[in-house]
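Pinned message: reference record for Response regulator
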Amino acid sequence: MPVTVLLVDDEPLVRAGLRAVLEAQPDISVAGEAADGAAVIPLVRQLRPDVVAMDVRMPLMDGIEATRAVLRTVQDPPKILVVTTFENDEYVYEALRAGADGFLLKRSRPAEIVHAVRLVAEGESLLFPAAVRALAAEYGSSPARAAMERAALTEREAAVLRLMARGLSNAEIAARLVVGTETVKTHVSAVLAKLGARDRTQAVIAAYESGFVTPR
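Predicted structure (tokens):
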């Protein structure tokens, strides 16, 4: 089955460009479009897309509020890929903190756009580049550090979290640690449970904000 995508952006040319790039792929299909975050929830419920590619800045409801609304109200919500102009935009980081699964620059090359959609759909690695890591570190706090201490990760779980924070997939982590992929999945699940994280993105944000992992 193809990966289905809902495009949400207030600029028709951006939506048209993304549609042209994505629909050129045999394994990706654009399920629909919206011009504002306020239209996302009904379309998600109607179309059940795998991924929502959502602009972070829109006039009525921005990508941050739309992300929160989808995750709060939609059962089995789609993956959310934030689309933005500036990679160091604090709006992007707030969207990731709200639960988005990654972000994509509007100026990205077609191959990068396709890769981002596939990566987010698979859910086993992250779009978390250096600029966002730096923002995450700036949000460091005592509560985040205390939460990380309470998690009491094992040595292997800590190693897995560090590699997750570098954006490695389960298969890449397995190769690095010389273990099976299923073993990595078990460790990832344990890390998420101990941190109270919804997904890998939230776990990695916790790692940076607590100082457990630092930007390079």
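Pinned by admin. Summary line: The chain has a mean pLDDT of 89.
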